């Protein structure tokens, strides 16, 4: 082999180092577009690049005003968060609930541009609700100066199990009027956008690891307690869908074998003892007059003994169900969301008691249980994240 055929450092294309740097810059920017603000340590773990390389590239991106940095906390320690600032594309997030619809607009890099929500009648039909959401989106875009051509797509949250093979809502959903309808085609036609449909609990989980304080959690369970009870699971950094796309139906796990018949057809499900509807019914019966969830929260915070007793029973049942999840999957953190979130420790404390009682000790002791910090917009934010994490949207 002659000297000119030998491999040596001087034989490398002098442009290869700059090309490699550009490639690494794009890897970092892609992670920030799809995951929002990340610490430099998290960027190093997710890209496989060294911390020194990450630090140098981030300094360069800051100098060219493509990213910005700001102090943050990670696992209780001070860190520097990195956020993208050069993205113009916009994602839509729409959350359909039992009695509401919420629309948000967010830029890549997870910057909330604006939101709107409106009440819907209980038992609303898909066609009418989709039309209302489309009108809300059009008005929100106009108010924010966002052109329709900037929209990447729309993430859609539905409160019920979704068969991902057909993208239809199945029996047992909070919105029975939506069961069996091809909502994907209806949404695409009404919004003139690619749509990405998911269960609202899944989107709540996605919001926690993108918009929320748990961005570095690889294994997380989000439990939404509302008219129904559902869980979203993030396992090894990704949403878990199973074989059918129907996962996290913890509300239909049996807690009492001789309990009430559930809307799913089984007996003694968690929803029959711990949903917000059950809590309201119990307190309304004791008062002799209907009350709302706001009144439940107010009474609990004022120390009303009957309300606290009911919440204690609810928390114990929820903790029992979560212990089964924890024993099987061992999540790092369990986040509780839904309209009861303002209760904070008044609900978390009995949930933890139920979890510790029924979980393997080492798992119970090492599972963090917290209230969601994103409020009632979590599912809509998760829906926008669903779009941002798709990369290039599919054509419709």
TrEMBL record:
Signal peptide feature range: none
CDD domains attached to this UniProt entry: HTH_XRE (cd00093)
Superkingdom of origin organism: Bacteria
PROSITE patterns registered for this protein in UniProt: ROK
One of the Pfam families matching this protein, by short name: MarR_2
Domain HTH marR-type residue range list: 27-77
Family: Belongs to the ROK (NagC/XylR) family.
Protein name: ROK family transcriptional regulator
Lineage: Bacteria, Bacillati, Actinomycetota, Actinomycetes, Micrococcales
């Amino acid at each position: 082999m002659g000297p000119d055929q030998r491999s040596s450092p001087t034989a490398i294309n002098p442009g290869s180092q700059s090309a490699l740097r550009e490639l690494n810059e794009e890897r970092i920017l892609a992670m920030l577009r799809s995951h929002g603000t990340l610490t430099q340590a998290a960027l190093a773990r997710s890209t496989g690049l060294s911390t020194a390389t990450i630090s140098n590239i981030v300094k360069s991106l800051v100098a060219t005003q493509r990213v910005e940095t700001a102090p943050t906390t990670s696992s209780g320690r001070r860190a520097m968060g990195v956020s993208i600032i050069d993205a113009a594309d916009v994602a839509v997030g729409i959350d359909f609930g039992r009695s509401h619809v919420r629309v948000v607009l967010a830029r890549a890099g997870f910057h909330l541009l604006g939101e709107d929500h409106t009440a819907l009648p209980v038992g609303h039909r898909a066609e009418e609700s989709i039309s209302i959401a489309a009108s809300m989106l059009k008005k929100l875009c106009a108010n924010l100066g966002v052109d329709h051509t900037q929209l990447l797509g729309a993430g859609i949250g539905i409160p019920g199990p979704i068969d991902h093979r057909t993208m239809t809502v199945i029996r047992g959903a909070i919105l029975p009027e939506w069961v069996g309808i091809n909502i994907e085609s209806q949404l695409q036609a009404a919004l003139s956008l690619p749509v990405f449909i998911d269960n609202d609990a899944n989107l709540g989980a996605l919001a926690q690891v993108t918009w929320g304080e748990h961005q570095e959690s690889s294994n997380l369970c989000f439990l939404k307690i509302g008219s129904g009870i559902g869980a979203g699971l993030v396992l090894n950094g990704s949403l878990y869908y199973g074989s059918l796309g129907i996962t996290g139906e913890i509300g239909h796990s049996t807690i009492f074998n001789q309990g009430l018949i559930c809307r799913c057809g089984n007996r003694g499900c968690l929803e029959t003892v711990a949903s917000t509807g059950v809590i309201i019914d119990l307190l309304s019966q004791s008062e002799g007059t209907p009350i709302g969830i706001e009144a439940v929260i107010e009474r609990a915070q004022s120390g009303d003994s009957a309300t606290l007793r009911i919440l204690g029973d609810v928390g114990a049942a929820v903790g029992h169900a979560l212990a089964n999840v924890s024993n099987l999957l061992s999540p790092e953190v369990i986040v509780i969301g839904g309209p009861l979130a303002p209760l904070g420790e008044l609900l978390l404390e009995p949930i933890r008691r139920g979890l510790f009682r029924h979980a393997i000790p080492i798992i119970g002791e090492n599972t963090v249980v917290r209230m969601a910090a994103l409020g009632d917009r979590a599912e809509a934010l998760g829906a926008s994240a669903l779009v941002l994490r798709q990369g290039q949207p599919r054509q419709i």
